[in-house]
Amino acid sequence: MLTVLAVEARKLNRSLAALLAVAAPSLIALFTFFNVLRVGEPGQWEMWLQSATAIWAFFMLPMSVTALTALTAHMEHGPKSWDHLRALPVPRWTLYVAKAICVLGVVAVMSLAVLVMTWAAVRLAVIVNPEVEPTGPVEFARHARVLAMMFAASFLMVAVQLWTALRYASFVPGLVVGIGGTFFAVVATGAKQGVFLPWQMPVNMLSSEAWRLTTALGLGGGVGLLALVALTVHLSRREVL
Prior knowledge:
Elements: H1 2-14, H2 17-39, H3 45-77, H4 82-86, H5 92-128, H6 140-153, H7 155-167, H8 172-187, H9 210-237
Helix pairs in contact: 1-5, 2-3, 2-5, 3-5, 3-6, 3-7, 3-8, 5-6, 5-9, 6-9, 7-8, 7-9
């Protein structure tokens, strides 16, 4: 299993995954940098960090997962290497578990990068214009906890996207599912039923309603892990992808 995982990590490193992992948090940081300068007066650290976290959960996280899962699957679909991989003397399930672990690992790194890059963007804005120095404490631990909960709540979304991307050789179905899911998550943010939508579950980690937070975290994390197991079992038993 460790060998398969190491090989999968090397393949991701040679793809555009590293660029994606840097680009998405960087865009949020860039937006924050110019927004701090645009306001032109001191804000609160809480406001800037929470704003970046919300942007990540609302849009960047779902779209990053869509792109990352499509990229991960296309590494095998593109050169039609599934037959070769499935003929290797390793259990088939390890191939899919390794891909899921790598995708989740990249998402975890991106989540942490959102917090670090946002802080750096605000500090850079202060260097450019000292008058915008934020006030209040920098609660890294609290925001890191929220991002960790968002990461856990995204498991079901990752499972759905990865399952679709691996199941179909074309990248179109995965993109349609991801774009559609993100669209309905954004337009149905205030709907009670939205808490059951995988693409909206990370956003609910910002909710002040305890039932939404616990429901989204339980479904996203718990059902997400079960979905990843189901993904592995289903695809491992298929003779043709």
